[in-house]
Specification:
D-Maltodextrin-Binding Protein, domain 2; alpha/beta; six-stranded mixed β-sheet
Length: 359
Amino acid sequence: MSKFHPKGIGTLGIFFLIVIIGSLAAACSPQIQTQGLETEVASTLQEIEPTSTQTPRATRTPTQTPLGSPDNPITMGFILKPEETAAIEAAEDVAFLFSDLTGYQVESLFYPDFSSYAVTAQNNEIHLLWLNPIQYLYLNGQDAADAIVMTNHLGVYAYGVQFLANVQRGFTVYYDPQTNESTGTPVQALQQFAGTRPCFINDESIPGYYVPLGLLANASTPTLEPIFTYGYSPIVRALYIQGLCDFGAAYALTGDARSASDVIQELPDVMERVIVIWQSEGIIPNIGLSANPGLPENITFQLEEGILNISDSPEGLSLLSTALNYEVEALKGISDSFYNPLREAIAPLELNLAVITQP
């Protein structure tokens, strides 16, 4: 006869033994509560339930959509308010045309002011940016923009400034109106303004304040506190009648402030009375297109080629002019060095670009 070994019963045997004993006890004493027994049985069942050894299912790592595809378009930023519907529609058409020329999906993004535009650019969420020169200098300094294309506006890619005065003031002229070029250095021409009072437009104008003020500083020429006229025509009128300021500054190469229709009509001899003392070369870039420095070099090159091809189409230039609210006659490729003359002109002013670019 085989011997009984308690260890040989096993967990399952214990379970059935508990069930049998419980049944007999219940039959003999129906008044005894079975709640404790049921709890014990449930505990035993839990103990005999096999532990799961299933390996967790690995999660799939999403594949990054290529830049320039419909799900990950290249973005082109514009500073336009919601009510500028014609410009917004034109900007969307520019993006469509750009997509067709490059093979990349391009999407236009719109911002109501430079403040929101700049934050998004610094977060690397705008790949292509249209910027005026001061805006560019700021974002370039933040590693958020690198120049690739410049617009031609009124026949030039960069314009200059001219210093005007009444002929009776007796300043020495360093400008030849026949060739529209200056004949002397900035130091020679500008130092004669030392201790005199200028007329400027306002303290936010690039050609009517920052650049002439910087050129005077570079020529070591201190002047009296300026008079702000808030317009070019008032500068010309003030110099014509004299007594308010000794010289004034205006834009150059894209036109002549003295030839404005209202000025010519009121002051027929203004061109003889108010003369150009000296004029700079084109040192202020027009509105330009920049790329985010984080873009792959090959994509940046293809985008530059694509935008330059727009200039081959009169329709493309018209759309771009409407989108920028700025007449664009042509486009050309540039690099960051195109902005160096402007940097040098305003360097002595030590401008806080973060402040002056805000609305």
